[in-house]
Design a protein that fits this description.
Blueprint lengths: L2 H24 L3 H7 L2 E2 L3 E8 L2 E7 L14 E6 L2 E11 L2 E6 L13 E4 L3 H16 L1 H12 L15 H10 L5 E5 L6 H14 L4 E4 L3 H13 L4 E3 L15 H6 L4 H18 L8 H35 L2 E3 L2 H7 L6 E6 L7 H8 L2 E8 L11 H5 L6 H6 L5 E2 L2 E2 L4 H11 L5 E2 L7 E6 L8 E2 L6 E2 L1 H13 L7 E5 L2 H10 L4 E4 L8 E7 L15 H8 L2 E9 L1 H4 L3 H13 L1 E4 L6
Parallel strand pairs: 8-13, 8-14, 9-11, 9-12, 10-11, 12-13, 15-16, 17-23, 17-24, 20-21, 20-22, 22-23
Antiparallel strand pairs: 1-7, 2-3, 3-6, 4-5, 4-7, 5-6, 18-19
Length: about 600
């Protein structure tokens, strides 16, 4: 069995795991489903608005939402009585969020109780299955695989730029070369996105057409922002409700708003809003005339949505021919682009987080492929243990780097030397250099061992929380005079985030997974786990800890229980390092 077949089996295992779990969970009570994290109920609907061809629904719960299933981009099913519609989760923050629906017959969701269900993403799974098949069937993908097998990259094109250091210039030189595949490793704070943006600028100056992609919409938009700063035209494809406000002007709808079809589009959207308002209007005394009016309005809504889509399709064809940079996630691009579409270069940013079949999916649109990211940060999300064993959790970038030379961006500009020294030996073989050698900073560990009652489990969501650790975080903030501005507090557990938000409402509080790519002056990490069995859960993926620590510019404070962590070799070595080179304290030192 070759690797493509193995990968296809892994995708099938992942699909089966999600579908089997979903089917099994449907027989459980609503309370049991909610505890498992796959059902939101009760739910308060805060808003319901039309946006183009989508309906955007805002909601809130009275409990922490389990982000293992419900995360930005997840498929969800909204159910009200006998009606149900599938959509995508757009935003999520502890117990509030928004999701989009594309159904044509959506009722007023505030009229009756609503449940929101997690749904396995069959669309992404189908795309992944196709990505595996492309490894045998697509000439571009086969050429990329053959080149990687040769393990013989060419010399980079000589390139000099005043804003780039030597390794960044080397990376751009490789982008400008002729190799079918280029691998670039960009650890935290090394200017990976800046390097790519300048490389893209140089490619466009040479008349090249480019696709840029990343596994998340946030990462796509981050690169788009830098390209817009350089006055590079882009076309942003995908679900517009997941995009940043700044790039919305560069979507198909955005170009339409400023083009010759604006008046027609405005008229169609205005008519759609009126029709949907009529269709969703709450009527106390129902009559046959009122029922007919609502039915006719729903029919009109369906017709108007089709007209709006037709205008967009015509505009997309013209824009694809004229704009030099096309941007989107792998699934978003594959769903939007003609299957025969071909560009000069496909650039995948944050490639270390991209499932390999999805990487091949977008790679099929390019004559050359550039993979840029960091395998030492968060890997792709995979639920099935069998799929992990078959290699699905390993990104294409990580697999390729195991045998093919890559360029390491080796100078980091973010972290103080004291902070980068804590991750350098564990993740980068001490190859990272620090530009700001005189930047003052510290890494500190506050030990919860022997302090408080340890972790607890939230009965509603199943998530872990630790009230005593929240108290310690709050107290150390007071003692060390850490201001809300310039500070992010992190935890891998959503229930812990809920307690932190209640205790520290003016501070930015987030999961570790959602801050990759961000940075701040001070980072406080609440590891949360504290138990006699030394179970550390999410913390076992050490790359998550690397992401958390490397967000900090000047100060990184880790709060955790050494008695729980100490049985793990990585954490014991990290704590030994901090005790010798940083600040190591007991939580008792912060008792009033």
């Amino acid at each position: 069995m070759d690797f493509a077949e193995q990968l296809l089996r892994a995708v099938s295992a992942e699909k089966k795991e999600l579908n089997d779990a979903f089917e099994k969970q449907q027989s459980l009570s609503q309370a049991e489903q909610r505890k498992l994290g796959i059902l939101l109920f009760p739910v308060s609907i805060l808003s319901q608005e039309t946006a183009g061809s989508f309906t955007i629904v805002g909601f809130q719960t009275s409990y922490a939402i389990n982000e293992s299933y419900f995360r930005k981009g997840s498929s969800v099913r909204c159910v009200q009585g006998n009606w149900s519609g599938e959509g995508r989760l757009q935003e999520l923050d502890y117990n509030r969020g928004t999701f989009s629906l594309s159904a044509d017959d959506i009722p007023n969701l505030r009229d009756e109780p609503v449940t929101i269900q997690f749904v396995p993403d069959d669309k992404t799974m189908r795309c992944m299955e196709l990505g595996c098949k492309l490894m045998h069937e697509h000439p571009q993908v086969e050429a990329f695989l053959a080149f990687l097998d040769q393990q013989n990259p060419s010399e980079a094109v000589a390139f000099d730029h005043e804003k780039l250091n030597p390794t960044q210039q080397l990376a751009v030189g490789q982008l400008l070369g002729s190799d079918p595949v280029v691998l670039i490793q960009g650890p935290p704070g090394t200017g990976k996105t800046l390097t790519l943006s300048i490389g893209i600028q140089q490619l466009i100056a040479r008349g090249k057409k480019i696709i840029i992609s990343a596994p998340s919409n946030a990462a796509v938009d981050n690169l788009c922002h830098l390209l817009l700063d350089l006055s590079i035209p882009i076309l942003r494809l995908g679900n517009e409700e997941k995009m940043s406000d700044r790039v919305s002007a560069f979507t198909i709808d955005g170009y339409l708003e400023n083009g010759s079809d604006k008046k027609l589009l405005d008229h169609l959207k205005s008519s759609l809003r009126k029709a949907e308002n009529t269709a969703n209007k709450h009527i106390r005394n129902y009559t046959k005339e009122a029922a007919d009016e609502k039915r006719d309005a729903r029919k009109e809504s369906i017709s108007l949505r089709k007209e709006i889509r037709k205008v967009g399709q015509d505009a997309k064809k013209q824009l694809l021919e004229s704009i030099p940079v096309i941007a989107g996630t792998p699934v978003g691009l594959f769903n939007e682009l003609p299957k025969t579409f071909l560009t000069d270069v496909v650039i995948m940013d944050e490639a270390g987080q991209c499932l390999e079949p999805l990487a091949w999916l977008v790679a099929s649109f390019g004559k050359r492929l550039v993979l840029c990211g960091d395998p030492q940060q968060l890997p792709p999300t995979v639920f099935s243990q069998h799929a992990k064993q078959l290699g699905l959790e390993q990104s294409l970038l990580e697999r390729a780097m195991n045998s093919f030379p890559s360029t390491l961006l080796n100078t980091q500009y973010r972290m103080a030397p004291a902070i980068v020294a804590s991750i350098n030996p564990f993740f980068y073989d001490n190859r990272l250099e620090t530009f700001h050698l005189d930047r003052a900073g510290e890494i500190r560990f506050v030990d919860m061992a022997g302090f408080g009652e340890g972790e607890q489990q939230d009965e509603a969501s199943g998530s872990i929380y630790n009230p005593d650790e929240v108290t310690t975080v709050k107290r150390l903030i007071e003692v060390l005079s850490i201001a809300p501005t310039g500070t992010i507090i992190l935890s891998p557990y959503n229930a812990q985030l809920g307690l932190l938000k209640i205790a520290l409402p003016t501070y930015t509080i987030s999961t570790i997974d959602s801050v990759q790519g961000r940075e701040e002056n001070t980072i406080i990490i609440s590891l949360t786990r504290s138990n006699s069995d030394q179970i550390i859960g999410f913390l076992k993926d050490y790359r998550r800890t690397n992401v958390a620590i490397s967000r900090a510019r000047f100060q990184c404070i880790i709060v955790g229980d050494s008695a729980t962590l100490g049985n793990d070799n990585f954490y014991q070595e990290l704590l030994d390092f901090i005790e010798e080179n940083g600040v190591y304290q007991s939580a008792w030192e912060y008792v009033e």
